[in-house]
Amino acid sequence: MERADYVTCRIAAQALDFDPEEHFTAKQTVPLDRFAQMAIVAAREALSDSQIDPQSDVVRQAGVIVGVGVGGMHTLDDAYYRVYHDDIRRVHPLSVPRLMANAAASQVSMHLGMRGLTYSVASACASGTHAIGQAFQIVRSGMATMMLCGGAEACITPGTIVAWEALRVLATDTCRPFSKNRSGLVLGEGAAMLVLEDWDHAMARGATIYAEMRGFGGNADAGDLTSPDQDNVAAAMALAISDAGLHPSDIGYVNAHGTGTTMNDRVESAAIRAIFGDTLPLVSSSKGVLGHSLGATGALEAVITAMALRDQIVPPTANCDQPDDELGIDMVPGAARPASFSAALSNSFAFGGLNAVLAFGRA
Amino acid sequence: MSTLEKIKQIVGKQLGRDPEEFDEGTDLAEAGYESLDVIETIFALEEEFDISINFQANDSDAAGMKTVGDIVRLVEAEIAKKGAR
Chain A interface, mutation test: which of B56, B60, B61, B65, most A Cβ atoms within 10 Å? Predict the structure, then answer.
């Protein structure tokens, strides 16, 4: 990271192998902040994996919804440093379209030629989950046959990390969700995109279906700015389960929000115990290994949840080497665990009290 | 102005109350402090006294900051460390 001397925190889950030159021409890179680059690459991979003809009408008519927590922070950080520190009062002419929060959705639509309903969703740490939930509703309603949706974030910049340090929630060593030696969260970056397609359309063309999106639940705490509310978090999970036409006992796995803070561990595990009672599902957090990529994280975790269902393997909570038994959940410490389950949830709870939960069924 | 008086001003501003309502024995939680009040106060203290306070919101004991007197001792210790450097 440039200007790293401004930052005390020594850890972030950076995608160090992501090299834009492998994916874009020099000319293509010019209007793209890193978060939009990542969104486009993830979208290309998702569309290619779907094996649908990229020139087909269904793709042309598809929309793109991308969750973004903050937007083009590399562009912003570099431009402000240049203006205020270097005293060069001139920035790149494409600074505005690079940094706008909708750049990821717009650039994906432009690069893949998708002309359907397209926008970004901003709900901080739940953005990716809200984006997928909204795209799901659009496909389910019949408004679109296919939607591309997910999340993208690339904000490992000095300005961003200094601001997170000020909140005093960054981990001192690494992210350890549900572990007694937890010390906070680790910021990450990345993108994940999913192809959501009408079931009959997907079946008719013989598509590989990883999982069935079955439900979406969302609500707002209307309470504390940064601390999640147990009752509302539980209500969001119940909404997703109900929207999916399922019963709590059908859920075999919950991919937790699991940030690695004491507050989230307590509130989320208590909410899970309240909803599931005697039929507690396995619970794990992906943030121990991927960090917290804010607007992208819900999309990354949705992919992991879908793949867990397909493979019937629950991923472990990385770095949970002192499982906090007082939380009363099985957080799958240690190694991945084979399991037989037909439905799973993916939780996201954002600053500002915005909760979003996706319910997936086994295809 | 003494350290205590400055801290009373900061706490009073944080709670939107008259600083004279507080003394060293005032319990912050009983006075109305919530989670964000703690980190906002630590920031205000760092700015006012030009010190750095090692505090992680993840720790439940809030840097040992339970009363106004705890803040005074914390700030005086940090000022002493700064003087020793």
Answer: B56
